[in-house]
Amino acid sequence: MAASIIDGKQIASAIREEIRAETEALKARGIVPGLAVVLVGDDPASKVYVGNKEKACQAMGFHSEVHRLPAETPQDDLLALIERLNGDPAIHGILVQLPLPKHIDEKAVIDAIRVDKDVDGFHPVSTGNLMIGDDSLLPCTPAGCIELLKRTGIEIAGKHAVVIGRSNIVGKPAAMLLLREHATVTICHSRTANLEEIARQADILVVAIGKPKAIDARYVKPGAVVLDVGVNRLPDGKLAGDVDFESASEVAGWITPVPGGVGPMTITMLLRNTLTAAKRIHGIG
Ligand SMILES: NC(=O)C1=CN([C@@H]2O[C@H](COP(=O)(O)OP(=O)(O)OC[C@H]3O[C@@H](n4cnc5c(N)ncnc54)[C@H](OP(=O)(O)O)[C@@H]3O)[C@@H](O)[C@H]2O)C=CC1
Ligand SMILES: Nc1nc(=O)c2c([nH]1)NC[C@@H]1CN(c3ccc(C(=O)N[C@@H](CCC(=O)O)C(=O)O)cc3)C=[N+]21
Ligand SMILES: [Mg+2]
Questions:
Q1: Which of 91, 82, 157 is nearest to 123 (CA)?
Q2: Is the pTM of this model over 0.95?
Q3: Rounded CA separation 156/168 (Å)
Q4: Does 162 contact ligand 1 (Cβ within 6 A)?
Q5: Domains defined along the chain, listed by start
Q6: Cβ neighbourhood burial of 168 (10 Å; 0-12, 13-18, 19+)
Q7: N or C: which end of the chain has fewer CB within 10 A?
Q8: DSSP state, 75?
């Protein structure tokens, strides 16, 4: 194995210590950061993530509440809950776990979240601010990818970053953040011709496609940095990334494992966004 491991768990825990210190300072002023997570239905994967988020909040001393609604909840009931959370002074961050059941219009729900409580960074105004460079709350997973690079000491400016995947929650915002950090960015997707050839030009390769172990050494330039965003549950119950770690780590210079790479950073960035939202709502910082 040639690659060095980017230890997301360790980097996440270092950032959590910073968040902890700031949280204690805020609590000394009588402000407790509060996160509300809304889970509609009982998708088993979503349940695990929601449980992890709740645990992380509790460990940080945040106020945290999880609203578990049945799968058949009418859209209007969900919108009414969001309206209530928008006005709840104990809540600074609102996260509606995606995907939502098919009868609910995801966009209508995201649009209803107060922008200053949009700790996922999925609201159209947050997305627009991300493009313009204004200081909205950043989407957690892409922000976590940038933190991994910076705290590993990897230069982004001037590098060719190739992002595979163009979803609104990972691929597109990851590309936009890399651009903000002055990378030259290529975005690939399922209709990309010659994916292998393009990926192999990347100094920094970000993979977010939702296909277990799809990206192997053939897609990786020797010495490249590989960030594997994928989290896929295999039939045997194990987790796998979108990158074939065993193969890709033979040629990469740096690589994130799954689990223990990008995933822990997502939750850490959620904590940080919630803290930031609490400070801003109270006119601090
Ligand atoms: N670690 C974390 O914290 C998080 C992990 N995830 C994981 O990241 C992965 C991606 O999630 P998400 O962005 O929501 O996924 P989506 O399914 O929304 O998007 C997948 C994207 O990948 C593209 N794609 C799919 N197959 C291929 C292929 N064979 N070659 C090239 N491009 C392809 C699609 O292209 P097209 O647009 O043409 O359809 C699409 O743009 C999943 O494994 C998910 O579980 C997600 C969020 C957070
Ligand atoms: N509104 C919304 N916001 C999200 O941020 C969001 C979402 N919906 N829907 C689902 C995806 C997925 N996601 C993950 C978060 C943490 C881990 C994570 O903690 N992973 C750990 C291990 C997880 C495990 O053991 O199952 C790791 O990779 O090491 C993974 C995936 C957030 N998402
Ligand atoms: Mg999706």
A1: 82
A2: yes
A3: 22
A4: no
A5: 31-115 (3.40.50.10860), 139-263 (3.40.50.720)
A6: middle
A7: C
A8: H
Residues 6+ apart with CB under 8 A from 18: none
Strand ranges for the chain from DSSP E: 4-5, 34-40, 63-69, 93-96, 160-164, 184-188, 204-207, 225-228, 232-233, 239-240, 254-255
What are phi and psi for residue 256, nearest 5 degrees? -95, 140
For residue 45, give every residue at least 6 positions away whose Cβ sits within 8 Å of its Cβ, in sequence order, or none.
233
- Ligand 3 centre to CA of 96 (Å) is 13
Q: Which residue has the tokens 């400070």?
A: 279
Write out the binding residues for NADP(+): 165-167, 231
In tens, the pLDDT along 17-72 reads 999 999 999 999 999 999 999 999 988 888 888 999 999 999 999 999 999 999 99
Q: Model ipTM?
A: 0.98
